[in-house]
Amino acid sequence: MNRLYRFLPFAAALLIVIWMYNDKPDKDPTEKYDGDALVIGVIGEVPEIREQHIRFRELTLDHLVERSDYAAGLDAIFITNEKLPEAAEPRFAAVFKSANIPFFFIGAEKGHFPYIDEELSFEDMPDHGSGMYGSGYYQLSGKEQVWGFGLYNDTISDWNVRGMYSRILGKIETIKLEGI
Fold first, then answer.
1. Backbone phi, then psi, for 56, in 5-degree steps?
2. For the segment 44-69, what is each residue's pLDDT rounded down to a tens digit?
3. By CB count within 10 A, which of 37, 90, 107, 164 is most buried?
């Protein structure tokens, strides 16, 4: 019986540790975006998101320089990871700075700089190490807006990336409503 009383504090402490460990969320606590329907242009792979009321329209980087109407009817443009090196070519920098539509560079660990500065090379630009997985850039009437979007626990997983997209969609709605 004496051994049982000595074991009880250890067992209680173990149960508390297990409870605390299991109480921590292992998924991004971000709410799904439930705002207005949006139409997003996508250069690269169309993302898988949690929201059903978002439409995507596929674009190419060449559309940005060859077609003046590429942004018609769009709320924003996503450029996904596999197209980032090409998007950093100097010929696109002026487009990003004058388009009057927000661009979001997904998987952009180099930030937004290689896309808006003709002098910077994508290959020479180091990862900025900020923990941001997505960067947003919007210039309207000479006023520049920049955002960074990280992943929950800095962990790349389908769930965390979808949570990041939900936060980006919320930012796009704010831009649309407030005109910033």
1. -115, 140
2. 999 999 999 999 999 999 999 888 88
3. 164
Asked if 61 contacts 83 with a C-beta cutoff of 8 angstroms, the reply is yes
Interatomic CA distance for residues 88 and 124, integer angstroms: 11
Residue 33: CB atoms within 10 Å: 21
Of 73, 122, 71, 128, nearest in space to 98 by CA: 71
CA dist., res. 71 & res. 68, Å (int): 8
Two tokens, residue 156: 């790349």
Distance CA 176, CA 34 (A): 15
DSSP label at 72? T
Cα separation, 152 vs 159, whole angstroms: 9
Q: What is the dihedral of CA 147, 152, 156, 158, to 10 degrees?
A: -100
Do β-strands 103-106 and 76-79 pair in parallel, antiparallel, or remain unpaired?
parallel
What gap in Å lies between CA 92 and CA 110, rounded to an integer?
16
pTM for the predicted model, two decimal places: 0.79
**Amino acid in position 148:** G
